[in-house]
Design goal:
2 copies of one chain form a homodimer. By secondary structure, the first copy, chain A, is mainly α. Chain A has 2 domains: 66 residues, Homeodomain-like (Arc Repressor Mutant, subunit A, Orthogonal Bundle); 151 residues, Orthogonal Bundle (Tetracycline Repressor, domain 2). Helix content of chain A is 78%, strand content 0%. In chain A, helix 2 packs across helix 5, helix 2 crosses helix 7 and helix 5 runs antiparallel to helix 6.
């Protein structure tokens, strides 16, 4: 099936074939089902059988698309992070002032968390898995790297434009920005009634800007 | 047994009785065993039987001291956080300048994580549990509140001394400081070879100081 897909893809590079559309729809259905099952049961209790049943497919059909529940989990998280990065990157450019850019990066990250709580549930589940399994650590490391690289690129460009202090190490600043976000997601998830994520966009931005901006005098 | 403990406690208020010493030793043994089992198996796979066996006790003996594995888990985390707070508070006073105080707060938090990785494993496991269960959320919320209150007290005192900007909201700044710490713990756990926790004490401190210190001009 994937062979015929490839042949057809070569012939019509801009249009998906019917088998390709079906394949992508099935993958999307499996990913949706897996996301529901993981969020509801947690990773350990979730099984390939449960996920296949939720998607209305057989276990065998699931294995055509994904090797394991680990692969499904990784794909869900990576897809989420890639969508987040792409949406933020699309809104940023050299004309956006540093303060606005930082606010947009943080707003973008929070908006996706607000879209559906299952993303948040999955990412915290992921934190625990990363602590217990090599595949979890590798998957999480690749997600961190994806986000870090995007932020480092942004910070380096802002440094070249003279908006970010030259003594700021972009890789370190990127890690701190990610840490601030992840840490606040954890608090929000734990105390949803005490935290209004929108109320933290301004102070988070202010903290980051105070640290990186050339407008602050070195102490 | 607890009744006779209380009677003996009333008679010799400053000295623990032999039954009390035994009781505390047994509790400590159970907490140690539980910490090992949780870190090794994760919360879901850990069982009261496994924990009792690891401690060399019967399940019945365990239930004399703890109602459930949830109670054991909560007690381990709370004990860890209380030790961390007390150790940091002992090192701080009105004579310690803001910069040094912030560095000490962050150093203290990291030092405890370096003492044994099981604390880190437990706290990330805890993040996932807080996402899935009401007891986990309540326990985590109480730990956040414990840490927040300590930091708010510190920030309010520093504000009174004129070291922290008057427009900084102490509760918000405390949340951001905790988020920064928790987020970096997660990264460190995921990429232990890429992150030297000690290398982040200075930039974390710098970010927080840039945000709260009166020495920065408002943008």
């Amino acid at each position: 099936m994937s062979l015929s897909d490839n042949i057809l893809l070569d012939e019509h590079q801009d249009h998906r074939t019917l088998p390709q559309i079906r394949k992508q729809e099935t993958r999307a259905r499996l990913l949706d089902a897996a996301q529901k099952v993981f969020a509801l049961c947690g990773f350990d209790a979730a099984s390939v059988s449960l996920i296949a049943a939720e998607a209305g497919l057989s276990k065998g059909a699931l294995y055509v698309h994904f090797d394991s529940k680990e692969a499904l989990f990784r794909e869900i998280l990576l897809g989420y992070v890639q969508r987040r990065s792409a949406a933020t990157a699309a809104r940023l450019g050299p004309d956006v002032p540093l303060r606005n850019a930082i606010v947009q990066i943080i707003e973008g990250a929070w908006t996706i968390h607000q879209d559906g709580t299952s993303c948040t549930l999955l990412s915290t589940e992921f934190f625990a898995l990363a602590g217990r399994s090599a595949w979890g650590r590798e998957a999480m490391a690749s997600i961190f790297d994806h986000c870090s690289l995007a932020l480092i690129g942004f910070l380096d460009a802002a440094k070249e434009r003279g908006e970010v202090r030259p003594d700021i190490d972009s890789a370190t600043a990127a890690r701190l920005m990610l840490a601030l976000h992840d840490g606040l997601v954890l608090q929000w998830q734990t105390q949803p009634d005490d935290i209004d994520p929108k109320a933290y966009i301004a102070p988070m931005s202010e903290m980051i800007i105070a640290y990186i901006s050339v407008r602050n005098t070195a102490p």
